[in-house]
Amino acid sequence: MAEAGRVRLDKWLWAARFFKTRTLAAQAIELGRVRVGGERVKPAREARIGERVEIQMAEARIEVIVRACSTARGPAPVARTLYEETEQSVQRRARYAEARELAAEPAATIKGRPTKREGRDLRRLRRGGA
Question: Less Cβ around it within 10 Å: N or C end of the chain?
């Protein structure tokens, strides 16, 4: 555990297993995908116990409260003790997972290779012909 409950934010995100590498965590912070208390921050900012951290990952937005600080990346069960996900975040992720489950499979509409006629039509369309 880190001394005085403070550690670099990029290191904490990596240790809490939100990102596979510390570099990916730092890039996400620089791109504004990670906010602390609703504000953009820098990777070197210290994560303090009790702070609210918002992480934008793909379509999901995860909100957590820092419960412990660590610079060491451990197993997932230990990493989960470093934070507590907010109730709204849990509900939002559940709704997102349900919507994805109910959505149509993207590849279901693909019927294989285009026929010769469809290929000709596609070529005509790309060239701008009639």
Answer: C
